[in-house]
Write a structure and sequence with these properties.
The protein has 394 residues and is an all-alpha fold. The chain has one domain. Helix content is 69%, strand content 2%. The chain has a two-stranded antiparallel ribbon. α3 runs parallel beside α11 and α9 packs parallel to α15. The longest helix has 27 residues.
């Protein structure tokens, strides 16, 4: 009897050891998928044997539609119920809209970013990299929300340091997983005007990624000064990147035709990106001028972070010109002006107020609606031109 027990125990041990080794081998490849019956993709794989139409839940196109519409409907319906729980806006310093925003519920990013993360686990088949990015996006949101809730606000240097830590963590995660998933184990960029990919050393990739993410976070945050402006420009960026992930990078034949590297999980990134676009639409329903709620740093910092992630995942850091040109000009030039003045005692753009949307309102008399519509038109025109250049002039 003891021999049988010992034999069974030994067999069980070998089985567990084999599965453990297989798991860590997949983890090392960055290809672990977090499966579960709560995820529609895998639920569809189970149910299709009993009900044919359930196979549609394994269609990425269907998942994209479901994620986008579900995100919009849920945020549109339930966001107002959280207004009493949100902090009140203190009024941002040195902005024209400080008095108009003061007292409104802010920090609503804590609501719609949390809903977004939950929906991604429901709709998108996720690998290690994507789960890590979702958690870091939520963490970036949390730092912004805690600042929104504080009575005096966090200092610039503290927020900058936290941004640097999170962006560095994301850069290291991207470098590790993307290198593991590449065919040659190396990191590479595809660039405009060049048909071949350019290999990048890990240290340089991490530096470029940290700069990209940090700039994306802070320029998006600076652009959040007119009702609907920042979120509308980010929505254009998300729809653009979602389309690139699904129709170009995630499609083997189209990516080969356009001479760009194929992104094997591009469809999953598309589901995540369109889901955030839908969530953002639900927020915009309540943030349209005159707004009844603000996203605060909780929303703008997370949105900027994820937009930067999408650009780096695409393999072409210059795609930010297609997704976020107006955001970088509107907020980035102000950051550059302040940095040069503070640290180098160099003055530039002395006659221009930044963020640029304040200059257009004060010096040119634009209304908030005019700022939104005109900035949106300029971004769409730039996006179309840049996409044509990046994907065809190579």
């Amino acid at each position: 009897m003891s021999f049988v027990t010992a034999s069974c125990t030994h067999h069980t041990f070998l089985l567990v050891l084999t599965r453990r080794n297989k798991f860590f081998a997949q983890l090392n490849d960055g290809c672990v998928f977090f499966k579960g019956v709560t995820m529609l993709y895998y639920l569809g794989g189970i149910l299709k044997n009993y009900w044919g139409p359930a196979r549609l839940l394994q269609s990425y196109a269907v998942l994209i539609v479901l994620a986008l519409y579900t995100g919009f409907i849920i945020v549109r319906k339930f966001l107002p119920k959280f207004y009493p729980l949100l902090p009140s806006d203190r009024g941002r310093e040195f902005t024209l809209t400080a008095e108009a925003a003061k007292g409104k519920p802010t920090g609503s990013g804590v609501v719609f970013i949390t809903m977004y993360v939950i929906l991604c686990f429901l709709f998108a088949p996720l690998d290690l990299l994507q789960v890590g990015i979702l958690l870091l996006t939520w963490l970036m949101m949390l730092t912004g929300y805690l600042d929104d809730r504080s009575k005096k606000g966090w200092g610039e240097y503290l927020k900058g340091f936290l941004d640097l830590v999170i962006c560095t963590g994301a850069a290291c995660l991207l470098a590790y997983c993307l290198a593991k998933n590449s065919s040659d184990g190396k990191l590479a960029f595809w660039l405009p005007f060049v048909s071949n990919t350019v290999h990048v050393p890990v240290w340089l990739y991490i530096i470029i990624t940290v700069i990209m993410l940090w700039m994306s976070v802070n320029t998006t945050n600076c652009t959040d000064g007119v009702d609907g402006l920042s979120s509308t420009l980010v929505m254009i960026a998300l729809l653009t990147m979602g389309g690139i992930f699904y129709f170009i990078l995630g499609h083997k034949d189209i990516s080969a035709y356009l001479l760009v590297p194929h992104l094997h999980d591009g469809a999953s990134w598309a589901v995540m990106t369109f889901c955030l676009a839908g969530v953002l639409m639900g927020y915009l329903w309540h943030n349209a001028f005159p707004s009844e709620v603000l996203m605060g740093d909780a929303g703008s910092r997370a949105l900027g972070f994820y937009t930067g992630i999408c650009v780096m995942v695409s393999g072409n850091p210059f795609l930010f010109l297609a997704t976020s040109s107006i955001i970088f000009i509107n907020g980035g030039m102000g950051l550059l002006k302040v940095a040069l003045k503070r640290f180098c005692h160099i003055s530039i753009f002395e006659n221009i107020r930044f963020p640029l949307h304040d200059h257009m309102r004060k010096n040119h008399g634009w209304s908030p609606t005019q700022v939104l519509i005109k900035f949106m038109i300029m971004q769409i025109l730039i996006t179309v031109a840049m996409l044509g250049i990046f994907f065809k002039v190579r």
